[in-house]
Model the fold of this input.
Amino acid sequence: MSPRRSAAEARSTRERIIRRSVDVASLEGLEGLTIGRLAEDLGLSKSGLLGHFGSKEALQLATLERASVIFNSEVWNPAADARPGLERLRALCAAWISYLERGVFPGGCLFVSSTFEYDGRGGPVRALLQRQFAVWRRRLAADVRTAVRRGELPAGTDPEQLVFELFGVMMSLNHAIQLHGDSAAVVRAQRAVHRLLDTTAARET
Done:
């Protein structure tokens, strides 16, 4: 076997492992990513699977990194070209709701479930989650500030508070869909976002 083919096969195997890990983690949590479980699912030896990552923690980190790529593809990319400010905020929230409604991850938002797993722990996995959430909050807050500067939102709008409340809507939506199968939850989330991003006050100032 040529070195080039060997490297290509290694990349292909690693890709299969990560794809399966994302699905398993969304359903069973990051702690559900056991080497034995994944090896059996993928028809690999435990040592062969472990050789691609070195440790369960490394696999968990790689899984979160891939989940972030998927989230950005589903939520950020569709809205990225919208006009910064209120237009992009609305587009981002619409894409975010759609991502949850469509069940992009089979077990619901992997980041929400991972937060519940790791919010009381320390270590690299929790630190990565913190960084990923911080990046998303900064993106949203930047568009809130732009919307305020342009008069699209009231002058007294607190960006961090508004982002906090938008996160609350999306986490509630994920909960309602995954735990209760609530068919009305999407409309409720859309109404909540509309209320939070209401421009009436801005027009009246």
Remarks:
- Residues 3-28 form the longest helix (26 residues).
- The mean pLDDT is 92.
- The CA atoms of residues 53 and 59 lie 6 Å apart.
